[in-house]
Amino acid sequence: MLEIVTEIALAALGLALLLALVGLVKGPTLPDRVVAMDLIGVLVVALIVVLAASNDVTATLDAAIVIALVGFVGTVAYATYVEQGYPE
Known about the structure:
Largest sheet: none
Number of strands: 0
């Protein structure tokens, strides 16, 4: 049963990742592309966590934490950039 749930979760995350990539390419403005990049980072972290849970490999969770932290720092950097009044 857990294998079926894992496969469904991986398929859903893969589809969401594909749609986020389309949004990244087609995003009409810079903020749209930044949100798409942030979403891609979150989806990659979710993929790593699901794979770590299904394979009982906890060492990959360190990579998920690093990716989440880098995504957070990138989002804060962009928010600071916009707050200072720079053009989008």
